[in-house]
Amino acid sequence: MRLSSAGFNHQSPEGIACGCLIGSAGEKTCLNSELWHACAGPLVSLPSIGSRVVYFPQGHSEQVAVSTNKEVDAHIPNYPSLPPQLICQLHNVTMHADLETDEVYAQMTLQPLSPEEQKDASFLPADLGAPSKHPTNYFCKTLTASDTSTHGGFSVPRRAAEKVFPPLDFSQQPPAQELLARDLHDNEWKFKHIFRGQPKRHLLTTGWSVFVSAKRLIAGDSVLFIWNEKNQLLLGIRRANRPQTMMPSSVLSSDSMHFGLLAAAAHATATNSRFIIFYNPRACPSEFVISLAKYVKAVYHTRVSVGMRFRMLFETEESSVRRYMGTITGISDLDPVRWSNSHWRSVKVGWDESTAGERQPRVSLWEIEPLTTFPMYPSSFPPRLKRPWPPGLPSFNGMKEDDLGMN
Amino acid sequence: MRLSSAGFNHQSPEGIACGCLIGSAGEKTCLNSELWHACAGPLVSLPSIGSRVVYFPQGHSEQVAVSTNKEVDAHIPNYPSLPPQLICQLHNVTMHADLETDEVYAQMTLQPLSPEEQKDASFLPADLGAPSKHPTNYFCKTLTASDTSTHGGFSVPRRAAEKVFPPLDFSQQPPAQELLARDLHDNEWKFKHIFRGQPKRHLLTTGWSVFVSAKRLIAGDSVLFIWNEKNQLLLGIRRANRPQTMMPSSVLSSDSMHFGLLAAAAHATATNSRFIIFYNPRACPSEFVISLAKYVKAVYHTRVSVGMRFRMLFETEESSVRRYMGTITGISDLDPVRWSNSHWRSVKVGWDESTAGERQPRVSLWEIEPLTTFPMYPSSFPPRLKRPWPPGLPSFNGMKEDDLGMN
DNA sequence: GTGTCGGCCGTCTGCCGACAA
DNA sequence: TTGTCGGCAGACGGCCGACAC
């Protein structure tokens, strides 16, 4: 593996660590931020280094359950000292990609804040966290059987080629050029880009099949080309959601993994020390580390009630976003036994569209945009649901909402 | 994936569970015991279902450290309630192989015994655990560059072909036959076995390259053919020790994994319930679940002292065993802070041969055979080192050694 | 506009004995 | 006894426009 070129070493705009150290396993601890975000999808944004975040062990547990393909065993207790959400200082965030599969993930170093530290609101960012910079000049295509066959090359959609690839010299017959693209591991791939056929079309020929077999791509997977401001071509992949591609880890039982995440968080809370978590944006059902500002705004400054209409963002097949509409049908604890008084997925919802089976029946307050105008059903509930901070848990200790820099 | 044929469904002689259920991940929860043991190596034997075993969290921790390629962080404390060894009932053992890499591992269900239960010695097996049945009619060859090249087939060592493969019909010219072999996942592989060339030799031609590329074998890896009593041909692989083939898991941080194994064992001890561990014989430096009988014999019925000579078994390149000699240089705790009074690797040793750098400088009592005759150095230590059971830990509660069925 | 196919050529796979270690 | 090679024949990779949806 090669060290990344200087052009890939810049501090990314959203303040993600990019020290480009080589880890003990020979894995780079940083990689191109734009490409990482393009692979992670348009809805994923990482909180800024140095900011305050809220960590949800419940959400972390959901990610582990998905990764190990095993639900949390009912006999695993909660740690009595571990609240459903921890306010933490985010000391570090690094972006990674699996060397085998190119699956993207982020590593975060969190430190739970003591009640004392939580009183000091000076660290709270005034803004709600500028969204991570997602690339604008890119395209994403789902591979067809012809694209992945050994019989031919890759058919580039016309608009994509014209927008993302350097212009061809049409004085040549046929017009053609060599493209160099770098992947998440900074490996370079070379393709012949040619405009030929009847009718004329853009194709990648020589070099394409090497890429397909090296990445083990099959029809249904997606590739992603980015043309960035430095005039570099970047190349990422997104695998189709094959059921259970993730192998059951033979390192630790899923039960032990659940114990592990709880114990690590509880120990860090008790000793005021740091702990490390991994976030897999494409495997994980919902973000379980969110900015404190976003959390406070959603929980303390948003009026929600049963019957209220809302909308929520989802990713489309083509890696863009669309909004789905729904109605709040209830507000309650997802797991009243182990995680009472948690805001994690506390909102029960119904979706407007009949394909709603794919979407979660429970969401968290910060995931939705309530529509305060034109409620579908008049509600007898008070317009603002008061959810007091659960007693005995880390709290703002009397801090007034206005102290948090919001209004 | 196919269900295994009836011939593979037998209860293995050493009492390993072989229910052949299909797990939720589509993975078979059992597989051929002979083949598993052949791949695991001649020194690996699994304790019997229903027997009592001793579980060492320290050893488990070592395996996790190897698998994650990260040493245990010094700030991870021990659980005060967790002793360095747990006496457990072994409720279940199942053999597995990774679907991607064919790496073998075992899953064990353990239940810590309460002091009450430990008093009941009736479950103690009288024998020291008959060693697991390892195949006799097999061969193991390390692949050469020619074996893995696309240019040709596999050169079968003559003695191996004559011992393990069905005899050829030498009236044909050239003598040839079709071989069908099943791997750990019960997939069938077809090879043309031919005896040709000048001088004559045994070769596998058609079908071989498909196998090599499917298993992603490279020169230095080994293949293993078994001819079992049911006249079936079995086929396994052992990859060369490529440094860090194991990818750093992006599921849980290594710290959290260490917390997890400790918390799971501590919770099971406190609630008298079961927990599940994975044992990777080829990754793990030493077995960390051993039969209680073996433990008691080594710790209470073996006289060891500094200066004493001993020998210990190691696996050779060709999958057979040889003994190395050494001298005991000290007896002390490996980790006096977190695991005091532990028998895990309590014996410091020096090895006779100069290539000793590869071998552990610390071993456990049950791994070695002390030579009571002809000690190299006269020792001023008492001939028998008394290591009383550490106070405050699970114990035999006054049980006399003779109660354990030894003498 | 783009997915798939038949046609065609060139490279590489894969079977053979020669030869040497 | 067995690892590697040159030789050779055939299979498949891979580039092309035709054609259809």
Automatic annotation (TrEMBL), chains A, B:
Subcellular location per the Swiss-Prot or TrEMBL entry: Nucleus
Q: Which residues form the TF-B3 domain?
A: 139-241
The free-text function statement in the UniProt record for this protein reads: Auxin response factors (ARFs) are transcriptional factors that bind specifically to the DNA sequence 5'-TGTCTC-3' found in the auxin-responsive promoter elements (AuxREs).
Q: What is the annotated quaternary arrangement, including any partners?
A: Homodimers and heterodimers.
Family the entry assigns: Belongs to the ARF family.
Give the protein's recorded name.
Auxin response factor
Organism, as annotated: Actinidia rufa
